Amino acid sequence: MADLTPEQVKHHVKIYVMVFVALAFLTIVTVAISYLDLGVKASVALALFVASIKGSLVACYFMHLIDEKITIYWTLLVTAAMFMVLLFVPLSAMLAHTKI
Amino acid sequence: MDIPYTVKDRPDTGLYNGKLGIWLFLASEVMLFGGLFSAYIFLRTGVDTWPIGADILNVPLATLNTLFLITSSVTMVMSWASLKLKDLAKFKLYAGLTLLLACGFLIVKYFEYTHKFHVGLFPSTNTFLGIYFTMTGLHVLHIIGGIIVIFYFWMPGSKMWKSDPERFTNRIEIVGLYWHFVDLVWIFLFPVLYLL
After folding, report:
1. Structure confidence by residue, pLDDT tens digits, A30-69
2. Which residues of B are less than 8 Å from A54 in CB distance?
3. ipTM over 0.85
4. Second CATH level (architecture) for the domain B17-48+68-195
């Protein structure tokens, strides 16, 4: 992001505004979904799906991950792998529990 | 001695040092919050019944706070873009708005917390409230940390714009990355704690 022309920056600003509108809309969608009677599993899946879209928008456009250097992608790949381990620790414990 | 690569990219990483530094810090932050999300799953799946957040917590206030934070993320990135356009006045405006929205978030959170305490709901009341206060409390600490740093760059730290504008712009990019991460965490905390 070091060598942007003023025109490129202005183009970025337009994208930021569009992303903001999308985030505000998806926030309303998230709340609306919670009022539907979908059952726990479907509600959790749908809410996390919408949150993932919102999170991706923030990461890709506000944090500029859509156009970053390879060093950062590698750093995040390792982080994502470790994060998945963290999430699967309780799940594997659950599976072990059900076997007993 | 000057700190190397504060403006120019290092040839081996392709990044200025501060940027790699903040991403490594954010990686550690992912693990910090990740551990708590992991604990949440563990606690929730380990019991037969788990309350619906909306029955205990205030969803309209949390929705307002979500809007505060996503708006503050936009104003933060706009403050960086203003510096890229060499407009310090606009930077001050957007950074000031970011601070205002962040303080708005804290005020709403204060009312939420004090209401809970007032009706006798504490972290020790039950497991749900325990994890709720832990996760949102840690997040609030991050908001306070962000406010301190943004305020510094908004007021005294902005002197650097005159002496070294590129380095100052990079500093704002770095604090912006942190601030967007704090927003990103809330994007997941909101549905997980309040809606599900």
Report:
1. 999 888 888 878 888 899 999 999 999 999 999 999 999 9
2. 187
3. yes
4. Up-down Bundle (1.20)
Q: Which residues of A touch B77 (CB under 8 A)?
A: 16, 62
Interface size A-B, in CB pairs within 8 Å, comes to 133
Which tokens sit at B23?
A: 């991403």
Residue with tokens 């081996």: B12
User: Is the CB of B16 less than 8 angstroms away from the CB of A44?
Assistant: no
Q: Which residue has the tokens 């809606």?
A: B195
A39 and A10 together in one domain: yes
The model scores a pTM over 0.90: yes
Q: Which domain holds residue A73?
A: 69-100
Averaged over successive runs of 10 residues, the pLDDT of chain B (196 residues) comes to 86 93 97 94 88 92 97 98 97 98 98 97 96 98 98 96 96 98 97 91
Same domain, A19 and A50: yes
**H or E segment and range at residue B145:** helix B127-154
Alpha helices in chain A (DSSP H): 6-35, 40-57, 70-99
